[in-house]
Every structure is written in structure tokens, then in C-alpha cells.
Specification:
The structure is a single chain. The chain is of the alpha+beta class. The protein folds into 2 domains: about 190 residues, no CATH class; about 110 residues, Immunoglobulin-like, CATH 2.60.40. Helices cover about 55% and strands about 15% of the residues. The chain has 10 helices and 10 strands. The strands form 2 sheets. Strands 1, 2, 4, 5, 6, 8 and 9 form a 7-stranded mixed β-sheet that branches. The protein has a 3-stranded antiparallel β-sheet with strand order 3-7-10.
Amino acid sequence: MTSFLRLVLGLLLLAFVAPAQADELRPGYMELTQETPSEWKLVWKAPILGGLATRAKPLLPDFCQLKLETPRLSGPAVVATGKVTCSRSLEGATVGLDGMEPGATDALLRVAPLGRPVQTERLAPGSSSFTVSAVPDRWQVARTYFVIGVGHIVAGFDHLLFVVALVLLLQRGWSVVAAATAFTLAHSITLAGTTLGLFGLPQAPVEAAIALSIVFLAVEIAKVKPGEPRLSERLPWMVAFLFGLLHGFGFAGALREIGLPETDVPIALLTFNLGVEAGQMLIIAATVAILAALARFAPQARRPAITVCTYLIGAVASFWFIERIWA
């Protein structure tokens, strides 16, 4: 095995094996909901991994007082709730997180004033505060939800593995494009329908089925035989479309947890979906580039690398499936 192949496989192992919680690894979350003219409810959710739980804390203006309850452990995060009493409106004031050090996990800030639109902002090291506006502009909403969409598929490891497996199965340019387009169309349908309340499925079985869809693709890759195309190779767009419907329910679950701005639901939905698509294209481009590099610099290692990655993807997805049906 060449040193180049060892490097590629090492990177894949680091990327895929570490996140045991897969799609549950989401950013931190801070919500301010106004209950009376002077009182707000605060919810602060900090993932245990990523530095937020131990270092970051809510940042509020000087004219606000926070009374925080004892934090509790909820899954892979620490959750705290509290009451915030302010002597005047938060309009024009700065809120956010204090103590977001370089390398810390991003966090989503949601501010919901009484009788006014919800405002949402992505907080990150170096930009960990936000000035509350009287009315959020559409660009702010669009930018925030686009970034959330990109982050969800790039850091949502089950969706990421599905797209990688799809590329490893098809490999050919136009087949990958057709399958990716079908996948996007399908998850757009279920994402929009579920978010708007037209239909839906319980999240737990959806997450388990998503893991099973990755196992299916891994099996299909392992059984590929030249001259004997399987259904997934003959009609890749159909397979991608059917599984895209399923993954759309997963995207909707994440978006439901984040919430949508009351006055800009269409643009938030659109830009979140565009962000998911952009993240998907990044994953496809990176996977195709690695395969092309192997074909050029280490052609004898290309097939073994695909085989090892296939079994690795199948093993991780099988673990997720078992974990999710027993959770």
C-alpha cells in the first residue's frame, strides 16, 4: 500500500469514525424569547464536545439581569434555562456568547421579541455577538440559513457518508450529476412539506432509516461486478430520489429544532435548502478529486482504497443503525 493511500485512508478514518453521534452533532443554541415587556426566557444548549459547555456563557447588555437555573445534561449537550429581566427594549442592544475561543463549535442565536419577527444569527469565534434589529432584513435571514444548510450536511455525518457512497458507487460524471439532482429534488419536497406542516414522520425511525440507506449503498458498492449492473447502477436517479425523500425528513428535523423566522419562512427554507445543496456539491467535488488523484498518482491503489472505504462506511452506518433503534 502506498504512502498516499495510507494518508487518504487515515483521513477517512479520522473523519468518519470519531463522530459516534452522527447527525446529532449540531451547533450550540441560545434562544431569547420575550414573555412580557421586561422579561425574557433564555435557553442555552451547549454541546459537550467543542468547548462551548466549559468556556462560553450568554452575553447580555448591562441593563439586563440573568437568573440562570442549574444546568442539566440532555444527550450530548448541557442545557440551562433562565429568566432575563431588562429595564428597556433589546432593540439596538448587543447579545451573544462570551468566551467563544478559536476552534470552538459554532452556535445559533435566536431572538424572539413579542409581536415582532424572530431574528436568527450564526455565532462563531471572532463573531460571537449580534445587534438586535427592530426588523431583520431579508439578507440577514438568507445568509444565516444558507450557512446553517451548508454546515448541516458537511457536519451531519450520515448525510455526508450517503453522498460519498453515492459517488463511490457511480463514479461516472453524468450519473453522479443525475443522481445528485434527483436527491436534491426529493429532499427539497419532504423538507418543505414537513417544515410547513403538510406531512411528517417521527424523527427516531427516520434517523435509523437514514443509517440503513447508507448500509444499502455500501452493499451495492461491494457487489459491483463489471458487465453486470445492479438496479442502483442502472437507475441511480430513482434510488437517489427515493432515499432523498427520506433524508429530507432528517433535514426537516434539524430545521425544526433550529426554528424558522416567522415573517420570512419561504426565504429561510429556500436558502437552507440551497446551503444543503452547496454542501452536497462540496462533498461530491472533494470525493471526485480524491478518486481522480488516486487514478493519476496511484492507479493500482484506487480499487483497494474504494473497497476499504466501502467497508468502513458500511461498518459505521451499521453501528449508527443499531445505536438508533436501541436509543
